[in-house]
Amino acid sequence: MKTLATLLCILAALPAGAAPTVDGAGLLSKVDRNLEPESYEMYRKLVNIEPDGSRKEYVLYSVKKGRDKLVAIFLDPPSERDRATLRLGDNMWLYIPSVGKPVRITSLQSIIGGVFNNADVLRLDYAVEYDVQGVQEEKDVYVLSLKAKTAEVAYDKLIMRVDRKTVLPTTIECYAASGLLIKTLRFSDVKDFGGGIRRPATLETDSPLYRGYRSLMMYAKIRARQMPDEVFTLNYLPRTKELR
Questions:
Q1: Whole-model pTM?
Q2: What CA–CA distance (Å, rounded) separates 152 from 87?
Q3: Most buried of the four, 105, 155, 208, 227, by CB within 10 Å?
Q4: Residue 201 pLDDT more than 70?
């Protein structure tokens, strides 16, 4: 009763028409969990579309554990099959069977070409890499202003529009530290993947830096799955294909 009385006093002290401030950090964490479990496996098709309409497609299998461990392996096309990538926090590696050892890659590079970079393909939770600087409330969406926690993050700032009903992102604008718009991510085609996961099945991106080019990321299967820590090591990369 004392707690209820205290809450009523706080609400009574607010100006007429005022609403409690939105918890930006909590909202961003909910976006992360609505997009996928903290630890999961998933299949994706990535498609790069050039200005002339030509397409190049890739199929990847990925697993993630906790907040900062992710590994992915190429299943198709045959020329890329069994290439594997590992991300541990800000550090990324690419394993090519014909080379026989992992090589370092960066977040702004792209192992598949197109508009998506490695940070997009090997994405960690947004709340791991970004702080919420502000939240604006509009009729149907929240607009989150996100600032990178470190200089190692691919984008210095994000403007994320989140559907108020589903708490899922609809668009994300990605900016450099200079304020230059690097790309826009567009989420669509919300589907039920089972296991309580209902999220956009398609992510599309374009960039003012690459006019006429588009890239798509289409999700086929996502489900919660736990993996041992051994899977997320450089020594395990040649064995990543055994996970499926």
A1: 0.88
A2: 13
A3: 155
A4: yes
